[in-house]
Amino acid sequence: MLPTLAGGTLFFPGLFALCSWALRRWRPEWTHTDRVMISTRLVSSVQAVLATGSGIVIIRSCNDVVTGS
Predict the structure, then answer these.
(1) 46 Cβ contact list (under 8 Å, min separation 6)
(2) Which residue, 13, 23, 37, 60, has fewest beta-carbon neighbours within 10 Å?
(3) From CA 6, how far away is CA 14, in angstroms rounded?
(4) Is 43 within 8 Å of 19 (Cβ atoms)?
(5) C-alpha to C-alpha distance for 58 and 12, rounded to whole angstroms
(6) Structural contact between residues 69 and 63, judged by C-beta atoms closer than 8 angstroms
């Protein structure tokens, strides 16, 4: 559990920083606020897709999701 937490702690801020940096290089005419808003939305979308995927894996691997059996 701890390695997963550490990975997420590095992955999501790193993705945000990478998106902000890439947008600064590709769209220099955009304001800082525009770049932050787009980067935040992209990171949120990636997080939502990963959460949905993990939920699907859990539902498909358990006979009874409530009790985990």
Answers:
(1) 12, 15
(2) 60
(3) 12
(4) yes
(5) 22
(6) yes
Per DSSP, 67 falls in state T
Task: Measure CA 26 to chain center.
Answer: 21
Taking the C-alpha atoms of residue 40 and residue 58, their distance in angstroms, rounded to an integer, is: 27
Predicted confidence pLDDT, tens digits, the chain (69 residues): 788 888 888 999 999 999 999 999 999 999 999 999 999 999 999 999 999 999 999 888 888 777 766
Note the residue count of the chain: 69
- Chain center to CA of 46: 4
CA atoms 19, 24, 30, 36: torsion sign: positive
Q: pTM to 2 decimals?
A: 0.80
Q: How many CB atoms lie within 10 A of CB 33?
A: 8
| Amino acid found at 14 | G
